[in-house]
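Hi support team,

I've been running sequence recovery on a batch of backbones for a student project. Most finish fine, but this one hangs at about 90% for roughly twenty minutes before it completes. I'm not sure whether the input is malformed or the queue is just slow. I've pasted the structure tokens below so you can try to reproduce it. Let me know if you need the job ID as well.

Thanks,
M.K.
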């Protein structure tokens, strides 16, 4: 058991480890300004993912082709557009991560094809890893080559046994952060 020297402040542990300062609010977190998360298709997972992403310093973007679809729970400042080509260029830059949050929509192939033509950092689609995703056939039908199809990550996120929308969002965002930071995710340090 360690003891704290008399007169020292145990909450000021950032004096020993600068990384602790962020946890105690003494040092500002400085997320990269190029962090953009594009969630495709409005769903409870997309809303939770964009809320968490905004908390992590991402600029949130929702692509929802159905103008009549109400999507609740989006964070303030979310940019909503109806297609991937409509995402402003500065938001679709090399730092953007694109996550398709519903693999059953008929627009799946088109939005993935369009995402693969943009200079985004990462593209992924939700789905069961034990079955070939419908995105493979949808992209093939649009003439997208195998090399481009292979750029689509599936499944997305870390394997934490996610079931609820917010759990899927946590898993997905943790996986994106691990990938962005060059880490494997999980408990292996």
């Amino acid at each position: 058991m360690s003891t704290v020297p008399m007169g020292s402040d145990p909450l000021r542990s950032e004096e020993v480890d600068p990384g602790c300062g962020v946890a105690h609010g003494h040092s500002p977190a400085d997320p990269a300004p190029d962090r953009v998360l594009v969630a495709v298709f409005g769903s409870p997972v997309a809303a939770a993912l964009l809320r968490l992403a905004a908390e992590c310093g991402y600029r949130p973007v929702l692509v929802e082709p159905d103008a009549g679809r109400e999507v609740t729970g989006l964070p303030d400042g979310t940019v909503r557009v109806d297609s991937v080509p409509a995402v402003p260029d500065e938001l679709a830059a090399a730092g953007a991560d694109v996550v398709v949050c519903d693999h059953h929509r008929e627009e799946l192939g088109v939005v993935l094809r369009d995402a693969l033509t943009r200079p985004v950092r990462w593209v992924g689609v939700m789905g069961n890893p034990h079955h070939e995703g419908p995105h493979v056939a949808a992209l093939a039908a649009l003439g997208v080559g195998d090399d481009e199809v292979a750029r689509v990550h599936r499944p997305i996120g870390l394997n934490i046994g996610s079931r609820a929308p917010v759990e899927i969002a946590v898993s997905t965002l943790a996986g994106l952060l691990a990938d962005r930071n060059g880490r494997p995710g999980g408990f292996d340090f």
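--
Follow-up from support: It reproduced on our side and the slowdown came from queue contention, not your input. The helical segments are 18-23, 44-55, 108-117, 134-141, 146-149, 165-180. No action needed from you.
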